[in-house]
Amino acid sequence: MRLQETFSEHTRDLAIAKSPGLSYFDSTEDKLKNIRKQLESNSDREKLDAMKRLVAMISKGRPVPEYFPSVVKNVSTQNLEIRKLVYIYLLRYSSQEPDLALLSINTFQKDLTDPNPLIRAMALRVLSGIKVGMIGGIVVMGIRKCASDVSPYVRKAAAFAVPKCYSLDASHLPSLIQVLTTLLRDRSPLSLGATAVAFQAVCPTRLDLLHPHYRRLCRTLVDMDEWGQVEMTNLLIRYARSMLARPTIMKTLDKSGNETGEESVDVDPDLQLLIACSEPLLHSRNPAVVLAVTRVFYYLSPSPSSSSLSTIVQPLLRLLTVSKEVERVVLVYILVIARRAPRLFSAYYPRFLVRSDDIAQAKELKAKVLLTILNHENHQALLREFIDYANDTDDTLVGHSIRAIGRVARLEPDCTQQCLTALLNFIRSKHDVQVSTAVLVLKSLVQSQSQSKFPAFTIGTASNSIISTLAYRIDDIKHPQARACVIWLVGQYAADDSQKGEGDGLEGIARWAPDVLRKAVKGFVGESPLVKLQTLTLASKLLVLCPAHATLKMLAQYVFSLARYDMNFDVRDRARMLSALLGGVVPGLMKGAGEEGDVMEDRGGVVLRREQVRLVLFEGKEVGQEGDFAGVDDSTPIGTLSAITNRSSLSDTLLPDWLEQGTEPSLRDTEDDMPQAPAVPHISSSAARSVAASPVVLTPTGGASPAGSMPKTGGGRFVDLDDLEKFYAEDEEEEDDDGDENEEEEDNEEESGEEEEENGEEVGQAEEPGESAEEGAEDDEEEEGSETESEDGAGERSRLFTAGLEDSGQAHW
Questions:
Q1: Distances from the Cα of 450 to the Cα of 5, 169, 463, 545, 622, angstroms
Q2: Is residue 781 part of a domain?
Q3: CA dist 179 to 134, 153, 175, 192, 277, Å?
Q4: Closest CA to 289 of 194, 222, 345
Q5: How many C-beta atoms surround the C-beta of residue 140 within 10 A?
Q6: Which of 247, 340, 562, 720 could form a disulfide with 302 if both were Cys (CB 3.0 to 4.6 A apart)?
Q7: Dihedral, CA atoms, 743, 747, 748, 750, nearest 10 degrees?
Q8: Residues whose CB falls within 8 Å of the CB of residue 209, separated by 6 or more in sequence, listed in order
Q9: Total of domains in the chain
Q10: Sign of dihedral through CA atoms 513, 519, 524, 528?
Q11: Domain ends where: 154, 184, 205?
Q12: Cα separation, 492 vs 490, whole angstroms
């Protein structure tokens, strides 16, 4: 039994026992009673067990502040695991017990000098996390001390503590800015990411502090951790947009001053440095890093046609297969970039085809991307895809696909008929979304063709057939907006001069128009307000086209009577406005609506003729604008929450606009950027004499020196490469001899210098200035002559030496 307990006790930390971690979540009264006793125990195992139970209860949301005094006593424990849990507890409840939390301040200050850097960092983290305003000065002192710590891990903790201290007491801002200045000078890549976060949280507008560190930060990007690369990249983008000049595109001129058609880009060297240093990060395994570098190229590249943007295409396509969540974010980036430069992704459209296992947001974004990159080369393949997507179970994807078909019909006249056929087939569908969206798209196409705002887009005689098809299927269209569109189309294009009033038709009105009015008036009471408004407009238009027809006049009077007492304000106002407008065309339109209608007819005012009323009702109708399929505003910065959710967010940070004239580049110059002069070796006079007196001649290895290879003058030395040890030994002896000679010469010079000092006064009085100058000149001439003679002698010796080698035929270098 004792052996089993010992084995269970020693294997608990190794997770061999069954679910050992679940026992800490057992919050029975018996377990809780022993926590205080365990915290005051001398056994580290019992203290650790008690702290684990407290942290487990904190994770469950159960308040345990009553153990605060007992936990504070264990702050100075030597067990690292216990100290970590104590720090977690203190961070949670220090704001509720500020008086007791102050008892541990001395311990944390002492831990700031601990030899272990992990302990120093933890102490500063807890000290800055205690939300007690009166210790703000102590926290600033601790941050300043850790900011100059030898360990980069501690300096990183100091950078994280800066925003906490600023939120605790903003009056310490000048001291914190000094700390940030110190941290920006740090050469370690480990702490620079945290420094960037602290900078943007404390003083985001003080970008001038980055002037002397900008180039070093750019070069250090590759060595930072992934999280630090993201934060530092965002900071450098803001700096570049605020302090560097905008890249300019200039047209190239030939010798005669004419434009050659080519463009040259003038980019600031510091901006080019940031782009070049961030380009290797496109190969990072972290998607956040790749997206951050994408923002660098997107916002800092000179133009959409620049070759730098093509660099980000393949890294973005690689991220599409990482995960579903990453795919959604990357598609938003691609969508925004494709709206600026669609040619970048047009060749990769197969990568954006919708799959059955895609999430709903990814399907919608892929449809938008495909529509954005549509061009003449891929429009046939994309049209087939859109027709197939229109049968999907996702109604949002169906709507976007049908709208995309209409866009294809606008952009590519060659496939207009194919698009119209597909849209008409969707009208016959039993799916309400397909029918309503197809009607809206057809209405936009017909209206665009009638006003000829798209010269390349022609429907021809298909317009009337499309409207007639929609008119005859008005009963099958249930969607309010789609029914309103059909009624508007019928009224807008009901005029037909070919109708002479023979048979069942009305003069000047298409055959299908009166029947649509009859069906709309029949169910007028149960229609939506949007359909009621268009029904009143249809009755007015038909009445203007044929005011003498009795049946048509009766239908108009009936529908106006119903609209006069409708529950909707807009419907009632529209009925009054149209009845007053038609007063000069049909005088008795409102008759029978009651005494109030008779009073209104007697009122004076401007009465319009039939031609004027027709002009008001039929002319000046603008082409309906298509919805924004991309769904992302160009002004919304990528990398923000609003770009993903299409909703404004207060946490979004807008990038500043470019400067026309950037700051002075000399502000960013440092000692590292200055060109260093080449080092000139210093040769002593004795070494120079030894080199000049003893030239070294290299000979081939493997035997004795050939005959004639040594000069007959005896001025050179023969170097036997086979016996290098002897050669170096001789050199050392010669150096020792030279050193002794130099020492003797120095002693003689010192003695002569002392004698000259003693006699210097007498000599100075005896000599005249002119004579001393002449003697100095003569001495200079003698020295120059001796130097010239020595140089001539050395040249003569080298000439003789070379001649001797050439004579032997075995000269070697």
A1: 92, 68, 8, 19, 11
A2: no
A3: 20, 16, 6, 13, 27
A4: 222
A5: 22
A6: 247
A7: 130
A8: 177, 180, 181, 184, 199, 203
A9: 2
A10: negative
A11: 205
A12: 6
pLDDT at 80 over 90: no
- The residue to which tokens 């487990």 are assigned: 56
Is there a domain that residue 728 lies in? no
Alpha helices in 169-286 (DSSP H): 173-184, 189-202, 214-220, 226-243, 269-278
Nearest to 30 by CA among 4, 1, 6, 53: 53
SS3 479: coil
The CA angle 20-26-29, to the nearest 5 degrees, is: 140
C-alpha distances (whole Å) from 187 to each of 156, 278, 512, 588 are 12, 18, 81, 91
**Structure letter (DSSP) for residue 517:** H
CA–CA separation, 445 vs 423, rounded Å? 11
57: CATH = 1.25.10.10
Q: What angle do CA 325, 331, 336 make, to 5 degrees?
A: 140
**Contact partners, residue 421, CB within 8 Å, separation at least 6:** none
What's the rounded Cα separation, in Å, for the pair 366 and 368? Answer: 5
Count of beta carbons in the 10 Å neighbourhood of residue 408: 22
The full 3-state SS of 591-640, as one line of letters, equals CCCCHHHHHHHCCCCCCCCHHHHHHHHHCCCCCCCCCCCCCCCCCCCCCC
Q: What is the DSSP string of 129-142?
A: H---GGGHHHHHHH
Radius of gyration of the chain (CA): 46
Structure confidence at residue 152 (pLDDT): 93
Measure the CA–CA gap between 32 and 60, rounded to whole angstroms. Answer: 14
**End-of-domain residue from the set 143, 175, 205:** 205
d(C-alpha 550, C-alpha 543), whole Å: 10
H or E stretch including 781?
helix 769-808
Rounded distance, CA 655 to CA 242, Å?
9
Could you report the per-residue pLDDT of 528-567, keeping only the tens digit for each? 999 999 999 999 999 888 888 888 888 889 999 999 889 9
Residue 386 contacts residue 405 (beta carbons within 8 Å): yes
Residue pLDDT, tens place only, 297-354: 999 887 766 677 889 999 999 999 999 999 999 999 999 999 888 889 999 999 999 9
Residue-by-residue DSSP string for 669-713:
--GGGSPPPPPPPP--HHHHHHHHHS-EE---SSSPPPTT-S-TT
Say which residue the tokens 């189309």 belong to. 489
Q: What is the pTM of this model?
A: 0.70
Q: Strand pairing partners for 495?
A: 509
Considering the domain boundaries, does residue 669 fall inside one?
no
The two structure tokens encoding residue 27: 């919050």
For residue 483, what are the domain limits? 477-593+606-634
Nearest alpha-carbon partner for 491 in 430, 533, 440, 457: 533
> What CA–CA distance (Å, rounded) separates 536 from 55?
71
Tell whether 617 is covered by a domain. yes
Write the CB contacts of 464 (distance below 8 Å, at least 6 apart in sequence): 493, 510
Look-up: residue for tokens 């106006």?
Answer: 560
